[in-house]
């Protein structure tokens, strides 16, 4: 059995399950979203510290920590808006739209490290944008308020995170980078406690700390399987496979709905499926252009 291929498929599936699980928490268990975000941040710090205690740090210079810190910082920013978006939208809508971020990664790579796209890559970009447009139109028809600016922040933060990790991985081990990122991500969010209403929300939401541990353990599992996947597979191939995450999200939403767990507003799966498939196809073409 090709274990690297198994892990490459497992990673987006785990992340997708985490997305739907987070949606369930936010819509069914949480009353104060930003208070819960801080609970999640504290959990990330604790998990990062525990992981760091089992790792060797002696071979690294201080400069090696720069990009893992930046990656953790932008995800810390993303964390606040991520939960707010899930509170208002179906996870398939949110993740489907967020997954256009590889276009930004491609543009950053073109501008700063000289990576160029082929014609196939540009075709992939166009198809992805069409899928995003169709998904946006679907959300508008449902009269769901879409906070474009907050969604934009999540998309840009996700793109910057992947871009910083791409640079960081040449200087630091993935395990060490993950530990740094987890700690910094949490530390970047904890200052929200300076606001009195968020502090009250944090105290009231601390009862859900067990749920945050499940969610963040899923995050660590997703990252771990991603690193295991790239041991024997080119990272470009792994990225192509990872683009199916929105499809996994849609599947888990359907499963939850089938079991009577109502966490979605849009139950017309075919409308979302077509747009998401276009996004996935576009991302695959974008990455495949690097292979050919």
Structure description:
With 292 residues, the protein is mostly helical. It has one domain (3-291). It is built from 13 helices and no strands. The radius of gyration is 19 Å and the shape is globular.
Keywords summarizing the entry:
single chain, 292 residues, mainly alpha, globular
What's the layout of helices and strands?
Blueprint lengths: L2 H26 L4 H21 L12 H23 L2 H8 L2 H12 L6 H23 L6 H21 L5 H16 L6 H10 L3 H21 L5 H8 L2 H14 L10 H23 L1
Helix pairs in contact: 1-3, 1-10, 1-11, 1-12, 2-3, 2-8, 2-9, 2-10, 3-7, 3-8, 4-12, 4-13, 5-7, 6-13, 11-13, 12-13
Category from helices, strands and their pairing = mainly alpha
Tell me the helix content.
over 70%
Oligomer: single chain
Query: What overall form do the CA principal axes indicate?
Result: globular
Would you tell me the overall average pLDDT?
Answer: 78
Model regions low in confidence, pLDDT < 50 over at least 5 residues:
none
Q: Which range does the strand content fall in?
A: under 5%
The N- to C-terminal Cα distance equals 26 Å
- Biggest beta sheet summary: none
Q: Which radius of gyration do the C-alpha atoms yield?
A: 19 Å
Give the tally of β-strands: 0
**What is the domain tally?**
1
Following the backbone from N to C, one meets helices and strands in this order, namely HHHHHHHHHHHHH
Give the number of helices: 13
